[in-house]
């Protein structure tokens, strides 16, 4: 059997933080959907069938953790995924996002 070595100097703090944030089904759905296309808040809450306030709270946490960011276009803000780690994690779980 192959012996596995653990690198005590390697930190997985960022990856663990991303996994915690993505551990909520709504946030996981949001990130999966945003991987396929940028969306504004209205489109996200319509696709998820959730109140705007709920979606906004989840978006705020995802933004705070630097997983997504918003791009303003006039009065609307379009969100997209900026975290390469989150993209890889969610990409490994899903082939396509929930919102098309």
Highlighted features:
100 residues, alpha+beta, Arc Repressor Mutant, subunit A, 3-stranded antiparallel β-sheet, 14% strand, ArsR-like_HTH, transcription regulation, transcription, Transcriptional regulator
Question: How is this structure best described in words?
Answer:
It holds the Pfam family HTH_5. The chain has 100 residues and is of the alpha+beta class. The protein has one domain (24-93): Orthogonal Bundle (Arc Repressor Mutant, subunit A), CATH 1.10.10.10. Helix content is 53%, strand content 14%. It is built from five helices and three strands; from the N terminus they run ααβααββα. It has helices spanning 13-22, 25-36, 41-48, 52-64, 84-93, and strands at residues 39-40, 68-73, 76-81. A three-stranded antiparallel sheet has the order 1-3-2. Strand 2 and strand 3 (76-81) form a beta hairpin. The protein is elongated and about 55 Å long. It starts with 12 loop residues before the first helix and ends in a 7-residue tail after the last helix. The mean pLDDT is 89.
Brief write-up:
Keywords: DNA-binding, Transcription, Transcription regulation. The chain is of the alpha+beta class.
Mean pLDDT: 89
What is the 3D shape?
elongated
Task: Give the CA-CA distance, first to last residue.
Answer: 46 Å
Counted up, domains total: 1
CATH class: Mainly Alpha
Low-confidence stretches: none
Helix % is 40-55%
- CATH fold type: Arc Repressor Mutant, subunit A
As laid out across the biggest beta sheet, the strand order is 1-3-2
Q: What is the tally of beta strands?
A: 3
- Number of separate helices: 5
Decide which structural class fits the backbone. alpha+beta
The CATH superfamily turns out to be Winged helix-like DNA-binding domain superfamily/Winged helix DNA-binding domain
